[in-house]
Amino acid sequence: MTSRRTDLATPRTPRGFADRHGPELAATRAMAERIRATYELWGFEEIETPFLEYTEALGKFLPDQDRPNAGVFSLKDDDDQWLSLRYDLTAPLARHVAENVQKLPKPYRSYRFGPVFRNEKPGPGRFRQFLQFDADIVGAPSVSADAEMCMMMADALEAVGVRRGDYVIKVNNRKILDGVMEAIGLGGDDNAGRRLTVLRAIDKLDRLGVEGVRALLGAGRKDESGDFTKGAGLDEAGAERVLSILKAKTAGNLETARALFDEFGSTATGQDGARELSAIATLVEQAGYADRVSVDPSVVRGLEYYTGPVFEAELTFEIADENGQPIRFGSVGGGGRYDGLVGRFLPENVPATGFSIGVSRLQAALTALKGADAPAAFGPVVVLVLDRDRIGDSMALAARLRAEGVAAEVYLGASGMKAQMKYADRRKAPLVVIQGSDEREKGEVTLKDLIEGAKAAAAIADRSEWTESRPAQVTVPEARLVEDVKAILARHA
């Protein structure tokens, strides 16, 4: 009698992480290639940085002396140095530029694609590992670089299939908000924490609405679950002054920039911000992007290191949620100018600007946008094996298909015909290739179109009719294998 093992490990995915499978990965790869091609059209080159960085290089998170795990996953190496999984793709770029500052062309245009990691509480749609696709220009102080970022974001969205009119690139300037915070007494290093709380409160406008933001600017807010988030502690007048920025949007970009100057130009910082927005508005108008790039004072971005223009890519089309209610996807990417980040490693600051696309969120939006019109994702052609001692012949058939660019595999299990057909269905094979001893002697192969076969099966109720008709099945000379397989695939392309 065989004893039952009791030392089995429990198969479980870590919280906040997920396995991804063929169709999703293929869709991600196809989308990434279109974004990549767009960036390269604009003169950007690809670089790849390590998943791990020295914790002190991340910038946003200062290392705790005991364990620097606030927001990042960290470990010590054999030199007793703290390492952390990268939180974003911007801090590694800043380190790379500083390390190679004498070798790189200035301005330096680069893009990066890959996973980033957040040691934060996971939740529905909130993962600890996700993909980002970044592009940056380092070494260009002019807002012309920020305008190019906005225009390239527009081109990237259209390249992956978002129609013009279904998105908008919003641009604002943090200097305007910084000027307001100076005016209400939140300037200086001592108030950095409260300023960040203000930024993150405004960044939640789309989700919480004006009243929710107002609560976070004041004492704080309790959400539906009862959790309380402490606010920035502004008095009523200060909160109202911050919220008034959101009301400065007018019909045109230049008009909005002028309104921001008139209303919030009481400080030199605020004046600079409004002038830079006016310059960006002029550039996108001259380049023909004014219908896609919009000056919008509601954009702030929630990170402290932004120093000037900030931008966000927002999808404007609506879809139905699980309850049938219309919702908007909102932001799928954003960024801004961060002139101080590279300067953490060098004697002087280095101007830089860039943006990041949230790949998973954009992919979900594209799936919703295409809906039923999305093409079916097919697996490989499956070559069945009816004679186990002649599996080499089946491998030869698959090799001929692959040599002509057709994805094909041989069934490697030990089951019979019925189980092999079920396997082909699970692999989403568009067709199977069958060659038993009779076909081999005649120099023939049988091709069974599984897509047409499924349609025919739905219309056949009688088993004898099915057996007699063998729907969507054809026997052809082996010499025509590739030609006929390609013809079937072309029908379903």
UniProtKB/TrEMBL annotation:
GO aspect biological process, one term: histidyl-tRNA aminoacylation
Keywords: Aminoacyl-tRNA synthetase, ATP-binding, Cytoplasm, Ligase, Nucleotide-binding, Protein biosynthesis
Enzyme class: ligase
Oligomeric and partner information: Homodimer.
GO molecular function, one term: histidine-tRNA ligase activity
Organism annotation: Methylopila jiangsuensis
Segments forming a coiled coil: none
Protein name listed in UniProt: Histidine--tRNA ligase
Disordered: region residues: 1-20
Cellular localization per UniProt: Cytoplasm
Reactions listed under catalytic activity: tRNA(His) + L-histidine + ATP = L-histidyl-tRNA(His) + AMP + diphosphate + H(+)
Family: Belongs to the class-II aminoacyl-tRNA synthetase family.
A Gene Ontology term for the protein's cellular component: cytoplasm
Pfam families: HGTP_anticodon, tRNA-synt_His
